[in-house]
Amino acid sequence: MNNYTAKFLLELSTDLIEAMGSRREDAHIVAHHLVEAQLAGHDSHGIVRLAQYYAHACEGKVDPRAEIEVVRESPTTALLDGHYTWGQVTAMRAVELGISKAQENGIAALSLRNCYHVGRVGVYPLAAAERGFIAQVHCNGHGVCRVAPWGGTEPRLATNPVAIAIPTRGEPLLVDITTSVVAEGKVRISKNAGKEIPDGWVLDAGGKPTTNPADLYEGGSLLPLGGREGHKGYGLSIIVDLLGGALSGAGCGKMTEKVGNGLFIQLTDPACFCDPEEFLDQVELFSEYLRSSPLKEGVEEILLPGEPEQRTAALRRREGIDIDDGTWSQVVELAGELGVEVKEAG
Amino acid sequence: MNNYTAKFLLELSTDLIEAMGSRREDAHIVAHHLVEAQLAGHDSHGIVRLAQYYAHACEGKVDPRAEIEVVRESPTTALLDGHYTWGQVTAMRAVELGISKAQENGIAALSLRNCYHVGRVGVYPLAAAERGFIAQVHCNGHGVCRVAPWGGTEPRLATNPVAIAIPTRGEPLLVDITTSVVAEGKVRISKNAGKEIPDGWVLDAGGKPTTNPADLYEGGSLLPLGGREGHKGYGLSIIVDLLGGALSGAGCGKMTEKVGNGLFIQLTDPACFCDPEEFLDQVELFSEYLRSSPLKEGVEEILLPGEPEQRTAALRRREGIDIDDGTWSQVVELAGELGVEVKEAG
């Protein structure tokens, strides 16, 4: 196991992405995203992605120097075409454009297509909520599907997350959830560790419940959120696909060959409806009200959405970020290939 | 059991609500809502509500003649105060105002407070989707709570539904779901029928799982959507409370004594982002793509969100609506009290 500071990983990742052909400022946006995901504990969306991103750059699935195009625009809306530059750069550009529109007009909605992997979706509503806006993001995945329609056996929907952030006087509240019962990464981790998965996550190719994670990769499917009430997660997943994929023209499910994310971003300035300070008061009072509920046996405290990640980030900022040997040797190998020097960790 | 046509029930309900002190046109909106809910199979939101509405009118919890006020307004947003007239009238007024704003400016957002029971929430996004708009509604319940914060035992959140409708060339797709595992009415029906409820719906007052529906009404709590992943339903419920209750000033959870719904309504014209006909094409193709998945054993077909209700409505329009004796005798008694003649069913 290796332990590095966020600052060290940010510099190294920026160098690596720049060496893949990116402008320095774009490389910084992508690297910052990966390191923030790693800090928050979402290691599957952290620097482990660098090798994959480079492979995709070589294959032309991502074009590190492509220019983002604003295809349609109104005072409150915009359609952006990422032309397959980095998804993080496209999505952050959309958030910035949305904030300027919402500052002027109170609300804004943005649609994104031809967008490479955007990474951890919660980052985008968080960025807007840190500037005082309520932000909702529906993010479809197209080209790769793991979730079957409710009652079906063949995967035709991605894990299609929804992420919503609400400003507070501290760090924003953040709900960042897949509409599948869990993210696919959790099944993969169990498979790699040779462990069973809980009942209720996966159906095998025949549509029967299974606790063997390998079944997902042999024609099986991931279940939608909700257990017996999985029609609810299924319904939400369809909404995400249509808002993210159909409005933008990115495509839905596996109806397109192109792999990527289609996004629909909505921003709301609370000042349209109330005094923003009173809104923050309400959020604070409501949070305290929820926290003060009597606890179930064995539960130490009630958490609010986003707090587990905030705590992991605080810990990792203090104590550094552990990177497993496999991931680290991949990064070192990539650096060799790209001619980037891996300096001594600070 | 009694069987009546929708037309008969609509006329009778309109007469009854008018006799409670309503303007005829408002009475018609509320009656239409109740009968449509009944047609769709949501009997708990149908004419069984008439007696409760009258009791609340007598207690002053609803003011049938109050005027709706537009408190704040911009070209794309509005805050409405219902002053506790019928919730259906307030919410339909907001939808109409929103549509006119979205027609002009592409998107619109509306916030509603001092809003009496709005009934079946899905009706409002449906009304906008029938006119070509994507519509999202977050509807909190305040004053009455059934759901405990994740890890807690005391109810501090209502069942807080989300309803989203997408236009199609036929009837809109409609996701209309509580963020609790099920609606409270399902537990009440089991209790009244003396039946056990499935594991995973309710915790007793001590926070232990229970299959006895009565436990919910003796200090227990309804679980959030998601089963083991109930933190997801809990997170969504908080979002609904803050969007519906905090933005509008209606209030969140049981932090207010006033019973009602706080709404946040968002409308989007697909034409902001794409050719609306191409959007409808995509929705159609995607629907067919989902339907055509191979089926699980025992499943006859894959349904899209909203289809079960559409089918129930078509059946009940053909064959009439069954009303159980208990509900019907309440209605007849109410008619006597209000001096409304119950004509022979047509």
Topology of this protein?
2 copies of one chain form a homodimer.
Chain A: E1 2-4, H1 6-19, H2 24-39, H3 49-59, E2 69-73, E3 77-81, H4 87-105, E4 107-115, H5 123-129, E5 134-142, E6 162-166, E7 173-177, H6 184-193, E8 202-203, E9 209-210, E10 221-222, H7 230-246, E11 260-268, H8 276-291, H9 307-319, E12 321-323, H10 325-338
Parallel strand pairs in A: 3-4
Antiparallel strand pairs in A: 1-12, 2-3, 4-11, 5-6, 5-11, 6-7, 8-9, 8-10
Overall pLDDT metric of chain A: 96
Helix content of chain A: 25-40%
What does the radius of gyration of chain A come to? 20 Å
Number of helices of chain A: 10
Q: Oligomeric form of this entry? A: homodimer
Low-confidence residue ranges of chain A: none
CATH topology description of the largest domain in chain A: Ribosomal Protein S8, Chain: A, domain 1
- Residue share in β-strands of chain A: 15-25%
Biggest sheet of chain A, strands in spatial order? 2-3-4-11-5-6-7
Q: Supply the CATH class of the largest domain in chain A.
A: Alpha Beta
The secondary-structure class of chain A comes to alpha+beta
**Count of the separate structural domains of chain A:** 3
User: SSE order of chain A in H/E notation?
Assistant: EHHHEEHEHEEEHEEEHEHHEH
Q: Architecture of the largest domain in chain A, according to CATH?
A: 2-Layer Sandwich
Main sheet overview of chain A: 7 strands, mixed
The number of strands of chain A is 12
Give a structural overview.
2 copies of one chain form a homodimer. Chain A has 3 domains: 1-65 and 306-346, Malate/L-lactate/L-sulpholactate dehydrogenase, four-helix barrel (Hypothetical Oxidoreductase Yiak, Chain: A, domain 1); 66-181 and 223-270, Malate/L-lactate/L-sulpholactate dehydrogenase, NADPH binding domain (Ribosomal Protein S8, Chain: A, domain 1, 2-Layer Sandwich), CATH 3.30.1370; 276-305, no CATH class. The first copy, chain A, has helices at residues 6-19, 24-39, 49-59, 87-105, 123-129, 184-193, 230-246, 276-291, 307-319, 325-338, and strands at 2-4, 69-73, 77-81, 107-115, 134-142, 162-166, 173-177, 202-203, 209-210, 221-222, 260-268, 321-323. In chain A, helix 4 runs parallel beside helix 5 (123-129). Chain A has a 7-stranded mixed beta sheet, sandwiched between helices. The mean pLDDT of chain A is 96. The first copy, chain A, has 10 helices and 12 strands. The longest helix of chain A is centred in the first third of the chain and has 19 residues, at 87-105. In chain A, 40% of the residues lie in helices and 17% in strands. Chain A starts with a strand and ends in an 8-residue tail after the last helix. In chain A, a hairpin with a 5-residue loop joins strand 8 and strand 9 (209-210). The first copy, chain A, has 346 residues and is an alpha+beta fold. Chains A and B meet through strand 4, strand 7, helix 7 and helix 8 of A and strand 4, strand 7, helix 7 and helix 8 of B.
